[in-house]
Amino acid sequence: MAVQKAPSATLFYFRGARFPSPPVSSQGLELVESFEVREDDVFVSAFNKSGTTWTQQIISLVTAGSNFSEVSKIPLGKRVPWLERADLHADAPPIISQLKDSPSPRLMKTHLPYNMLPKQAREGKGKIVYCARNPKDVVVSVHNMNFINDYLQPLSWEETLHEFLSAPPANLWWNVIPEYWSHKDDANLLFIKYEDIKKDLRGHVVKIAEFLGRSLSVEQIDEVTANCTFAAMKDNQATNLSRDPVLKEKVFKRGNEHGIEFMRKGQVGDWRNWFSPQQLETFEAFHSEKMAGTDLTFEDEE
């Protein structure tokens, strides 16, 4: 099967939410609601550019059992496939169809809002690990992804900011994240924050392992942690997609030409290098209005 070249993504709507195609499969989205969830399934969920890759790496190693360094060399998309993604091969069924016959435990990544997760997952079957991030850093990361990803349309910083604040309600950060937060006490959902992982990576390896019912030795915890630092992941072509031999030519050619990688900075507070005083005032006023009534907060710097 020939791998598709990377055309520009077109946008489509499904249940009020907007998606880019590629990479999202409209056919795959139709199958999510009725997806048969197993008790040991793990869904790695996050808003775009909010720590998905980091959480995938931690969870895939925590569940690996042993040989963490070797497992870390396997492309992350194979270890934790994207639930709603189209296959890279033009004539292959969407990823969700292929997952039906995958061996347990199945690890799956998703960017879907909570209300669009598989019905059985929302009813308590399987495990959901949700990673959230300060929206100011999210929009900066979104802006850079739009630039480096050949599928996406590069926008000016001002255009990115406008798009982020005026997204359809089903895609709006201020609707998606509070909905997940409202389920933080569900037995099958672990809500974590990017900033907290940055502050205590090892502690989060332990927390995630406990949530997933995995017993790791001190040495195993140390090894997983070592393979999940930003530096280790940036040097690993299995996690830094800009260094994947195929993707660097098919998806991230523009970024590589400008020296900007998929694993860029991984900082907390990089937003300070982007927002003008007026933009920051507007953004924070919008944030305060939308988050009124919720106790969810984020740290602004490391």
UniProtKB/TrEMBL annotation:
Domain Sulfotransferase intervals: 40-294
GO terms for cellular component: cytoplasm
Transferase found in the keyword field: yes
SUPFAM superfamilies linked: P-loop containing nucleoside triphosphate hydrolases
Entry keywords, A to Z: Transferase
EC number of this enzyme: 2.8.2.-
InterPro entries noted in UniProt: P-loop_NTPase, Sulfotransferase_dom
Any one biological process term the GO annotation gives: sulfation
GO molecular function terms attached to this record: sulfotransferase activity
Stated family: Belongs to the sulfotransferase 1 family.
Name this protein carries in UniProt: Sulfotransferase
Organism classification: Eukaryota, Metazoa, Chordata, Cephalochordata, Leptocardii
